[in-house]
Amino acid sequence: MPLFLEIIICVLLVIGGGFLLLGSFGLARLPDIYTRLHSPTKASTLGITGVLLASMLLQSHLQGFLSIKEFLITLFLLITAPVAANMLAKTALHYRIKPLEKTQNTHLMKPMRSRSQPAKPSDDNAPKA
Amino acid sequence: MNALIWLPFLPLLGSLVPLFAARFSRTTCAFMTAILPAITLLLVLSHAGEIFNGSLFQASIPWIPSMGLELAFRLDGLALLFSILILGIGLLVILYARYYLSATDSIGKFYAYLILFMFAMLGVVLSDNLIQIWFFWELTSISSFLLISFWGHKTEARKGARMALTVTGAGGLALLAGLLILGDTVGSYSLQIVLYSGDLIKSSASYPVIVVLILLGAFTKSAQFPFHFWLPNAMAAPTPVSAYLHSATMVKAGIFLMARFYPALANTDLWFLIVSLTGLATFLVGAYIALFQHDLKGLLANSTISHLGLITLLLGMGTDLAAVAAIFHIINHAIFKASLFMAAGIIDHESGSRDMRQLNGLWKYMPYTATLAMVASASMAGVPLLNGFLSKEMFFTETLHQASLGSLSWFIPVLATLGGVLAVAYSTRFIHDVFFNGEPINLPKTPHEPPRYMRVPVEILVALCLIVGIFPSMVVGDLLFAAASATLNGLVPVYSLAIWHGFTFPLLMSVIALIGGLLVYKNRSHLFKFQSQFPASDPKLVFEGIVQSITAKANRFISLTENGSLQRYIFFTLVLAVIMTASSLMKLNTTAGQRAEIPLDALSITCAVLLCLAALATVVCHRSRMMALITLSVVGLIVSLAFAKFSAPDLALTQLSVEVVTIILLILALFFLPQKTPKESSPRRVVRDLGLASFAGGIVGTICYALMTRPLDTISTFFTANSKTGGGGTNIVNVILVDFRGFDTLGEITVLGIAALGIYKLIARMRLYMPSTDDHGRPWSKDKHPILLSVISQSLLPLALLVSAYIFLRGHNMPGGGFIAGLITSVAIIQQYVAHGVEWIKTRIKLDYQVMIGMGIGISTLSGLGSWAFGQPFLKTWFDYFYLPVIGKFELASAMIFDLGVFLTVVGATMLILANLGQLTTSERLTQQEQE
Amino acid sequence: MLILTITAVAVCICIALILNLWRLFKGPSLPDRILALDTMYINAIALILLYGMYMGSALYFEAALLIAMLGFVSTAAICKYLLRGDIIE
Amino acid sequence: MEGMYAFCVGLLTACGIFLILRGRSFSVVVGLTLLSYAVNLFLFASGRLKLNAAAVLGESEQYSDPLPQALVLTAIVIGFAMTAFAVILAMRARADLGSDHVDGALAPPSRDAAPKNGGSR
Amino acid sequence: MKLLPMPFHSLLLFSVWLLLNNSISAGHIVLALFFALSIPWLISDMHEKHPRIKKPWLAVRYSFMVIKDIITANLEVALLIIGPVKKLTPGFVAIPINLDSDLGITVLASTVSLTPGTVSAEVSEDKAWLYIHTLHLEDEVALIDLIKQRYEAPIKEIFQC
Amino acid sequence: MQHLSIFPILIPLFFGVIMLLPPVSRQLKAQRICSVIAGFCVFVAAILLFTQVSSQGVIVYALGGWQPPFGIALVADPLSVLMVSVTAFLAFAVILYSVAGQDKGGAYFHPLLMFQVMGINGAFMTGDIFNLFVFFEILLIASYALLIHAGGKQKTQAAMHYVILNLVGSSLFLFGLGILYGTLGTLNMADMAIKVGSLQGETATLAKTGALLLLVVFGLKAAMLPMHFWLPKTYASATAPVAALFAIMTKVGIYSIFRVYTVIFGEQAGELANIATPWLWPMALLTIAIGSIGVIASPSIRILSANLVIVSSGSLLVCAAINSIESTAAALYYLVHSTLASAGLFLLADLISRQRGKAEDRFVHSRLMKQPKLLGFGFAISALALIGMPPLSGFVGKIMILQATQSIAETLWIWPLLLIGSLVTLVAFSRAGTTLFWRHNGNEVDEAEIAKPAEILAVGLLLLASPLLVIFGGSMAEFTLHAANYLHDIQRSAYDLLPGVTR
Ligand code: NA
Ligand code: NA
């Protein structure tokens, strides 16, 4: 295997592995569900892309022809990750999970739950119906 | 084969006659019924002459040789005697019953049962095979049951019949055991051989067992003490039945049996002890009880018991003369007791009562019947010039010659005389208490003489009492001799049938009996008073009580063990499995074998830790169901990774796709189930289950390890070698699935299809608990179909289908195949259901999933059937390589069609399950929401 | 070098998986756990690809593809369940 | 590796059995699923473990035993069908019997309710 | 029935098939054509009408921009994740949107989820507001502007909706 | 006719599939016609196969043309054709009965019946132990679906227990199979029989573990103590024709025990010879005992017949424990008899129950039946057969079993149990019969359902089998002896079943 190829693969792998670890690290570390959502949605998606690219290069080299079917996985993940995040956010909202204390605009959570227009901040203090 | 074979079967045919003849008048019916028995009787009599000359008729045809059962009959003196009794008295009973039964009774049914019994009884006495004897023996029990319960609407008839059947049935089983051991000892079930193997039998170790078992059969049938109680209760039967079965024939079957096996079993101390003591006890007990009966038939029944005891006693005495006497008494008792029962029946019939406290002074109303009854009664009492006297004299004579009780042998004649006294007493009571003794009290009817022909059978029998009594040797001499000869294997002693033997000791005993009996009767009030001190116990109640207490105990036991707890049932099953495997595993000394192990790596350890933690978490969190589902998913994921790691990509793919479908299914179901499991197991229970579970897990792990570390030589090399050349594919696993073991796969998709059909059945008309809030009481979100999900799902569908096609097509050569492809397609469609809802899909997809299943299984089957056209067995595959100009070389294989069937079945089944389950709520939920 | 890198990355992913599991157990809410599961799917894909690279085999690609497709379906289904109770309506 | 594998199989078995012995249908179904994982892994292991030996001709130097793999595939499918049936049956039982307990909430079986004399008279 | 009910999908399917099989042999091209035609035909009923991509070139440019943003976003997020939790200033933001098609909204929401420190959490029922959660909310107005101009505007142009 | 061996499996499969496809799937009437035709065809095929095997000997049908032990082979030997013939006969009667109206009350009755028959026949015919598992699952899943036919709480609850227990059983089956494959490396039973003899030491011990696990599985199917609990409720709650068909289901377990523990782990299995015997003894005897206790405690015909099924299982297991040619022959005769007789009783119970109003088939006072004579006659026939009283087939089976005991110890254990069991059955039946048919209040109700001709025919067919089994008892016993001989001497013929193996 040519060295440059090996280096590229290794770099891609390291990037991928790093971001994957980072995504999971964030998942474990971040303080509330809403912040945690960010971490796998972005970092892990990028990380897996790195690994996929590495795999693509290596397999192409091993098989002797351009093997780019790994793109398909990337495509799938890029399409689905935001939807999964969206569903999870909806669920978290539905479950009325308290966000981190210092989260701004928490008054928006109520209209988000009911999928209505955003309300003024003062509405948040109004007694619940 | 000769006419002998037909003897018993003529009555069998005859039992059908009354069923057809019942449509005619009762007289015609009786007449037609009598024809075949009459012919049989003539046939029997036609053999009599030769038998008197010492001939023996035998006939047999093989039946079940491996069991030792053949259809074998013998007609010797004993059989002749009994046949004549059975057929002769049977004919008289037919005539008698014609008048006895009322117009509301079904006479056809009665006659049918009666003749059926006649058949069975003839079968017993004519049998020449041990098993066949038992065969007919049990038939007599059955037909007797039917006859006793002829008036089945009466409680006492049902109970009496049940009791008789139970007691005689139990005896019958003992008899069977005895006969089987006997046959085994002799080495043949042929009676002929058995009768001549007496010495062999008596010297064998199993002799005592044989004797006891066979005698149990005989004693129960012949109502010997302590099994006598069923007979009085069988009196619930119509009187003709009592006259026939319970005096003349069936109860004599036990006696017959003893006489039949006399050469083979008798003449040992054991035989003497059991038979004579039982007989003596029965003789006295029966006579004593008879005296206190108020029921006419009860008196006769108990007297029958007593007389049967007498005969038994004679057979147990061990002398040849006693045996002769026994046989003579069989004849005499049959004659006088049948006539007495008939007389009692007439009295009952014409006065409406059988209670001797009501029946008084009937002489005035029915003098003719009274005369007949008195003669028969006198015979029963042993009055000279009547047949009863003769055999009783012989009996007394024999009692005097007994020495086997040693210095206590004088007990026997004394007790015999005592029995005689009691017999005279109850016979006197039968006459005096009924025909004299003042006026009738509260009779339902005014008594009168019966119809002319109803008396005829009694007349005949009473006449016989007299004729035999006066001219014994002329009338029954030959018959008695022949019968005795058969009983004694030809060694008949010298005996005399004269009425007068001079002033002998037996005569003195007779005189004592007569005078004593009259005296006892005269002073009966004292005896009755004495007897009334004892609490009356009805054997029927005792018997039913025992049966019911057994039933109750059984009930308690069953509800204790089968307590309806599935957990217990599973527990037992697993405990058994654990015990069995553990017992064997303990002999495994070294767990690890010689095969080299794969070294551990960090990745595997991590995955294993994940797997174990997730599995444990599933257990720990199982009460929070959603959580359990999530951890279960983790387990499933790691399992698929394991398959991938250990070189099974097909398995990994399958496990992954099945996993998702299972999770979706569980989620669907969870909606209708409680979200949380209550804590209900006691700590003890948890510990117990944990113990069992870990023990079982340990065993499985140990076996698994032991297996993996040992080398194995398998048939798989064949598959590797033939996969490409024989199956046309490089993916060996897939070739095994669609070719080498395609039959398994066909079965597997059938299972899937059936499961879908079954689930469809389960879902149909299901009443649902639909929670309106989740387990925290939150109302459900109003957003049915999140916009992002809908849009993205739509875009993913074509891609998913393409992937599915890809997986399907490559399956034969690369990991994949119809099953995985089917699951991917299903998941893709389900995703549309999740994203868009049922209504949306309904208008867009019009697939009949049931048809799809049918098509799938059908296509797979047909692809297998195609090979028949080429003379090949089912599922023989075909493949070939083709070349087309532009496309190039490609392969076509019948396995592809088979796999297509798999694909269709999987999609059809999965969708039939999930879509139907999903649809379940839709309509109801819509209305629910409108109300909100 | 490649093998070394693969091993190193595999270790990273192992740690990631354990972190995922930790979050899965810790929760505190169900969406947290589902998120952890979803992340685990992604890490599993990476793991399979790495294994394929390590073994130099392309046989494992489909497994990764399937996880990518099906993992999403199950995440979406569970979320839908938590939102609506009934996933097919 | 074999030891760890066997340990995992044993643990899965134990977890499955423990859950099957719980009284609620859902736990039982989850237990059955765990048990079927164990079964599949066990059956798979009967062909011995091999690395990088997928049973695809031309893809590996040595081949793992393909037969147990085929058997496990069949077992997975059948297991899926059975689990599906059990799950829906559990739903049905909840609907019919008013409880998700595997024994239902029925009155004691009629055997106990029958009169003590068994009706003979 | 149209020959090509979903031309974009057909193209996608065609290329994905070849991608999957790593082959451009004649046989696979035939198969790819077959699936590219047959699958859309099979599921055309299942497909709701969405606006077509009217400006493909713009779409390609947009894609590259998003990819670039994903990478930068990830680095930003990485810093936030590693950095002290105290520094986080998360918040919810409601973004008024002006897209008529569900597809457009979906693309916008997805883009937003993949790029700078934000996750789309909800779309209002009237499809006029996109609610997002952001890890690092400093200037709400600037964020809204950024999203509307950098992402919403090109999407609107691409789909002409 | 070279494909005859597979007909008993393919015919029901084919018709089952036809019934799922339009136009047949749309009309119950068409399904009924199909079903009757299928039942008849299966029966004819079974009889043809029976005669062919009787005259020409064993037929091996290598599926896919792959020679055993590599491919799956169907083996038509005397035992399997006997079982298949009984199944076919029973199935035909059950179909006849069900077309009279019991097939209503739920979808897919007839296809499921077909699949059930396919599963049972397959289990009997296959010569491959994993294929046996597959057919077990087919017959089980079909039985689950049939059990819940027509719905109702009792059925749901019974099904719950039945299904879960059997799922556990299936898991154990697979564990067992894994062990056996892991030690023997083959799945064909004849091949296993050959290979097992050379197992030694620890591998043999491991194989023994697997074999014993299979015994648990088969015991569960056969309702062997302590795994019999599921049976009474399951059989008693099933729809009549289903319950009747279930009569053969426990026999599948029994069959498997005979097949596996005489053929594979029989006399010639070296270190593993007769491993099941010590376990079978106590459990078989206890099964008879507990079945008999159940018999006496039964409050209704259905539960009574279910308990009789347990007793008959126990008796058959005793024969398996004796493990001799004679006992196997006895078992086969008894098996045929008890299957058909108890099936007949299940159907009869339904007819009786339909005419007795609320009392159903319980042994209590009730109204008058519409057809007391007909039903009473049928009841008497099946009672005599099941008690084991002459002149019906039960007594032959019973005597054959009694005669098959070898040692005094065996005799002392078996005889009293079997004979007391018979007595208990006699008591139970006499109580049942007198109560059912004679203890009524005299009221006749018009709406009571009369037994339909097809139903009477079905019951008649099943009951008729009993006297026929006695009349032709000689040839029947000869055949079972032949089958038993073959089974016990399998080592000699094993290589004939394995064209793919050279000695
Ligand atoms: Na729904
Ligand atoms: Na973002």
Mean pLDDT of chain F: 93
Secondary structure category of chain F: mainly alpha
| Assembly status | heterohexamer
* Rg over CA atoms of chain F: 22 Å
**Percent of residues in β-strands of chain B:** under 5%
Query: Which class do the helix and strand fractions of chain B yield?
Result: mainly alpha
The number of distinct β-strands of chain B equals: 4
Q: Please write the string of helix (H) and strand (E) elements of chain F.
A: HHEEHHHHHHHHHHHHEHHHEHHH
Termini separation of chain B (Å)? 91 Å
Shape of chain B: elongated
Give the biggest sheet of chain F: 2 strands, antiparallel
Rg estimate of chain B, integer Å: 43 Å
- Overall average pLDDT of chain B: 90
Please give the order of strands in the largest beta sheet of chain B: 1-2
* Shape call of chain F: globular
Brief summary of the model shown:
The complex is a heterohexamer of chains A (129), B (932), C (89), D (121), E (161) and F (503). In chain E, 58% of the residues lie in helices and 11% in strands.
What report would you give on this structure?
- The complex is a heterohexamer of chains A (129), B (932), C (89), D (121), E (161) and F (503).
- Chain B is mainly alpha-helical.
- Chain B is built from 38 helices and 4 strands.
- Chain C is mainly α and 89 residues long.
- Chain C is built from 3 helices and no strands.
- The termini of chain C are far apart.
- Chain D has helices spanning 2-20, 25-45, 66-97, 110-113.
- The longest helix of chain D is centred in the last third of the chain and has 32 residues, at 66-97.
- In chain D, helix 1 (2-20) packs antiparallel against helix 2.
- The chains are: A mainly alpha (129), B mainly alpha (932), C mainly alpha (89), D mainly alpha (121), E mainly alpha (161), F mainly alpha (503).
- Chains in contact: A-B, A-C, A-E, B-C, B-D, B-E, B-F, C-D, D-F.
- Chains B and F meet through strand 1, helix 6, helix 7, helix 25 and helix 26 of B and helix 1, helix 4, helix 5, helix 6 and helix 8 of F.
- The complex binds sodium ion (NA) (2 copies).
How do the helices and strands line up, and which of them pair or pack?
The complex is a heterohexamer of chains A (129), B (932), C (89), D (121), E (161) and F (503).
Chain A: H1 3-29, H2 33-63, H3 70-94, H4 109-114
Helix pairs in contact in A: 1-2, 2-3
Chain B: H1 6-14, H2 17-21, H3 26-52, E1 57-64, E2 69-75, H4 77-100, H5 107-126, H6 130-148, H7 155-186, H8 191-195, H9 198-203, H10 207-221, H11 230-233, H12 239-248, H13 250-260, H14 262-265, H15 269-291, H16 296-315, H17 320-351, H18 367-381, H19 387-400, H20 411-435, H21 452-470, H22 472-487, H23 505-522, H24 524-532, H25 539-561, H26 566-585, H27 602-620, H28 625-645, H29 649-670, H30 683-708, H31 716-727, H32 732-740, H33 742-763, H34 787-810, H35 818-836, H36 838-842, H37 849-865, E3 879-884, E4 888-893, H38 894-931
Antiparallel strand pairs in B: 1-2, 3-4
Chain D: H1 2-20, H2 25-45, H3 66-97, H4 110-113
Helix pairs in contact in D: 1-2, 2-3
The structure holds sodium ion (2 copies).
